[in-house]
Amino acid sequence: MIYQSAQLTIQRLDGDIAELNFDLQGESVNKFDNATVTSLTAALDALEAENGIKGLLVTSAKPVFIVGADITEFTSLFGAPKEDIKPFTGTNNKNFNRLASLPYPSAVAINGFAMGGGLEVCLACDFRVMSTVAKIGLPETKLGIIPGWGGTVRLPRIIGVDEAVMWMATGADKRPADALKAGAVDAIAEPEQLRDVTLATLKNAIDGNLEYAERRARKHGPLPLNDTEAMMSFFTIKSMVAQQAGKNYPAPIKVVDVIEQARSMSLDDALDVEADGFAELATTPVASALVGVFLNDQLLGKKAKGWEKKADKKIERAAVLGAGIMGGGIAYQSALKGTPIKMKDINQDGLDLGLSEANKLLAKRVSRGRMTPDQMGDVLNSIDPTLTYAGFEDVDIVVEAVVENAKVKGIVLAETEKEIDKDAVLASNTSTISITSLAESLERPENFCGMHFFNPVHAMPLVEVIRGEKTSDTAIARTVAYANKMGKKAVVVNDCPGFLVNRVLFPYFGGFNMLLRDGADFQAVDKAMERWGWPMGPAYLMDVVGIDTGVHAANVMAEGFPDRMQPDYKSATEVMFELDRYGQKNGKGFYEYIADKRGKPKKTVNEDVYTMIADVVGERTEFDRDDIVMRMMLPMAIEMARCLEEEIVGTAAEADLALLYGVGFPPFRGGIFRWMDTVGLAAIKAASEKFAHLGKAYELTDHMNAMLANGETYY
């Protein structure tokens, strides 16, 4: 053994080959934490002192190669001065440079994921062989930063500037065929042959059959572009990246800037430019927010897995009540992820609509090459449409997704309970109706909970799992396990009107309606909130949600929280509803919708809408954009604080992710609690006082005032 630690080993193989094997003890994956970086330095010291080595094989003892840096170890960097951040990249850059400059060839066997620093160490090797089931990528821009261990330097010199920029700007995973085509890897091998193929590649290089000196020179030198080529190339790339990334995400364009600035430099100088770019971005609120989202997602996943471990029974057969778009979406997602499902409706038209929805989604996957026609057939065959309860005695969970009416749901749930096994879980997809009240019609309320999907089911990651007063841990655990199996992000919340997401969304809509009442133009409000980062403004969002659905939900919220959600005026949204303008579902709402060539609804403006709402809105007034944002965001933020204080949701992290995954809260702001921490509770308090005349929805809670007095933050 040449070197051994709890993070990696180097041993001598036959033929004077050394094997560097990453194997982080106590972890299921390898990552570049501080201990691994320190061990790699010591290992290279030992390797350089070893005589007679002819080649280096780099491997992983885990199913995953290296997932990248340990994110938890550099969160303390955010807010630090730039000069304090640069050393973070320095030590491992020296390691990779030493690895790349060994006096003999190196080859790496990439099994599983090689992400971020995991791919960067591979780029430092001379030859790369990838498993057919592996994925590689540089996802740092998704965290608001750029690669810091040579990715922006070596990757463009290996696969070309255009391709490298797309890899890094999007942060997308790359499959073996794409990686081989781009030239990022030299060969692909089946998992059981990966080591042998990599060793054979290395031995060919040792024997002189594969040249590697020129490869190294290319990675150490300037990019092969003259001034004219560079000017044209980078101008085009910058325009494309800027258009796709948008102004709120600086990391993708910084990738281009760093590559352009270092294009004519040597390796060391180029790495210094990269380190400056990394340090600059690491000081931004965007990086702090996006890393926070990443860590919150890990926490959410850990909690969901914890619930799954508590499940005493696997969900192997499911059923959904009510077909149509929502029921069809639930059936599709369940079947796609491997759980056969019965889809029941009271009429054939509903079943046909549900099957049509599933068929449409599956056909799209086939057309994009993500599924074969045979696989599509298998998934469709695992959806069993039915007009009766035949076979329901064998299902493990039933998701009720009928019309959003408490009386109808109560009747359907009570009827269904009699048809299923006494041990089966019964869940309601209600978006607003109290789970505790719905349970009153059931004989086994302990087996009942909420399972609130967001529309469209296949696209929206979030599922709220709602605990009623009598819901058992067993029902929650099995439901979360089912959500996990469906590929969803489950947030467990306690029962209240609107649960979590809708409870905080409707104060936001309340802020919108009051702005219109006071003379704001709904288009101007939409533009202000979209500039702030929302994927769509409140008028557009209400059209997408469905104005009829929105009015119903608003009434439920008003009844549940009359002191702050019961308006004392007639809103423009109510006028839209009374005029049968329901939004996208019937082609007319605040905006009007006409299908484009691809069949997608295209938003258009009908000036007549201003006449329709004239009686309930004030004289047209131009509001300051910051005032629009605060009038919209404060009610949502304060209501979310109430939810945390009332333990409707367990943590600020779960609350933030619920809004990100449920309604598209801007990721670059990290979530609503992260946003409040960023702007500061003093600023939130000042805005609350400025808009106090708008009612209790704008009034900070006692706990928020106490936090401000004590200098506390949510994170």
- Approximately how much helix is present in the residues? 40-55%
Outline the low-pLDDT stretches.
none
The class by helix and strand makeup works out as alpha/beta
Q: What gyration radius follows from the Cα positions, in whole Å?
A: 28 Å
The H-level CATH homologous superfamily of the largest domain, spelled out, is 2-enoyl-CoA Hydratase, Chain A, domain 1
When the domains are counted, the total is 3
Distance between the termini: 45 Å
Any overview of this molecule?
One of its GO terms (biological process) is fatty acid beta-oxidation. With 715 residues, the chain is α/β, with parallel strands linked by helices. It folds into 3 domains: 3-283, Alpha-Beta Complex (2-enoyl-CoA Hydratase, Chain A, domain 1); 314-494, Rossmann fold, CATH 3.40.50; 502-582 and 609-710, N-(1-d-carboxylethyl)-l-norvaline Dehydrogenase, domain 2, CATH 1.10.1040.50. The strands form 4 sheets. An 8-stranded mixed beta sheet has the order 12-11-10-13-14-15-16-17, sandwiched between helices. Strands 1-2-3-4-5-7-9 form a 7-stranded mixed beta sheet, with helices on both faces. The chain has a two-stranded parallel ribbon with strand order 6-8. Helix 5 (161-170) runs parallel beside helix 9. The chain is globular and about 85 Å long. The model has no long low-confidence stretch (mean pLDDT 95).
